[in-house]
Amino acid sequence: MTLKDGIVTAVTVTPHAYVPRSLELQRAFAAAVPKVVVGKRIDQVRVGKLAGSSGTPKGFNDAIRQIREQAARG
Predict the structure, then answer these.
(1) N or C: which end of the chain has fewer CB within 10 A?
(2) pTM as predicted
């Protein structure tokens, strides 16, 4: 994730699944994420089910929380 003045300017999600169906869902999620988070303030970013993936958003939102904390520390 790239931020400028607290705004998301770019994001990349890297799928890590090995099971073909899970990998397919993670890839679809990874493709959908930039469309819903780029241009938003980091403190407003939280995703739900995207592209049929219901489990992946939890990990993504946890990562966003960690990024927010790091950004707040400067």
Answers:
(1) C
(2) 0.81
* 57 to 9, 22, 42, 72: CA distances (angstroms): 19, 13, 15, 22
pLDDT tens digits, 1-58: 999 998 999 999 998 889 999 899 889 999 999 999 999 999 999 888 887 777 778 8
Tokens of 61: 């939102």
What is the Cβ-side half-sphere exposure of residue 18, based on CA atoms within 13 angstroms? 0
41: β partners: 7
| SS3 state of residue 73 | helix
